[in-house]
Design goal:
This protein is an alpha+beta fold. The strands form 3 sheets. Strands 2, 3, 4, 6, 7, 8, 10, 11, 15 and 18 form a 10-stranded antiparallel beta sheet that branches. Strands 1, 5, 9, 13, 14 and 16 form a 6-stranded mixed beta sheet that branches. Strands 12-17 form a two-stranded antiparallel ribbon. The longest helix is centred in the N-terminal third of the chain and has 11 residues. The protein contains 4 helices and 18 strands.
Length: 257
């Protein structure tokens, strides 16, 4: 059961980014785009894509990401921010966000661009909060080692302009987390736990509703987790890692403003 004290928010836009883009490994091998599926864990709130990255691709990325200049988060967060203990790397990289969006098949899956079912297309736009136009170019890499965690918090929505020609005014609506490790790689713990009984951020009261169980999303190598954020975000936390390492690539879905 979550704490009944006021939950913290995570203003990602305040984090300092590296200016020089790393030479990201090629996004291959991948499973065929047509084999990707959206799996709903909680209607309108939590969706996963299993095997979004292959295990080989995850291994390649972990090896590469380990060479980046990761920075350990401060033990004492700023006022109003959630307690987060991990190592992280952050960069604004439009080119890499476009590769993640197009090369992996994510664009086709999220937008339903190849579907001829007009109702399905409307349902997808309703789910994502508008016409999805890409991923947030702010790429974040998280490594959680033994004893590290991310306390209860809400993810905020951000307003931005995508580097298209001409620029596309956009806002973020869903968090995208790509898990590179899991129990099969020796990572124990690190589950993401959502608390529907508390309600979304806009209705936060600190009181829980009886009969609604937390939704626990365990780690799976290569799985992508999408969850709604902003005013409709559910209170959630990243549980403590008790063995091994939890590696995550983070971005967000962007819709047109």
């Amino acid at each position: 059961m979550p704490s009944k004290s006021k939950a913290k928010r995570t203003p990602a836009a305040k984090q300092q980014s590296i200016s020089i883009s790393p030479k990201w490994p090629s996004l291959e091998p991948l499973i065929p785009k047509e084999d990707l599926r959206l799996e709903t864990l909680l209607e309108g709130q939590i969706v996963v894509i299993r095997k979004f990255f292959t295990s080989t691709l995850c291994k390649n990325y972990i090896s590469f990401l380990s060479s980046l200049p990761l920075v350990t988060t401060p033990g004492q967060p700023k006022k109003g921010e959630a307690v987060r203990v991990n190592d992280r790397f952050q960069i604004d990289d439009w080119a890499f966000s476009e590769q993640l969006w197009h090369a992996t098949g994510l664009r086709d899956l999220i937008t339903g661009v190849k579907s001829e079912d007009s109702q399905h297309l409307r349902d997808l736009q309703s789910l994502w909060g508008g016409e999805v136009c890409g991923l947030n170019p702010r790429i974040r890499i998280y490594r959680y080692s033994k004893g590290q965690f991310f306390a209860q918090h809400y993810d905020e929505s951000n307003v931005l302009s995508l580097s298209t020609s001409p620029p596309t005014p956009a806002k973020t609506t869903w968090t995208l987390l790509i898990y590179l490790t899991g129990p099969v790689t020796g990572c124990v713990g690190g589950e993401t736990v959502f608390y529907p009984e508390i309600g979304p951020a806009k209705k936060f009261s600190g009181k829980s509703s009886e009969g609604t169980e937390p939704v626990v999303v365990g780690l799976e190598v290569g799985m992508a987790l999408l969850h709604k954020h902003g005013q409709d975000c559910l209170l959630h936390e990243g549980m403590e890692v008790t063995a091994g390492e939890k590696w995550v690539i983070r971005s967000d879905l962007c819709v047109k403003r």
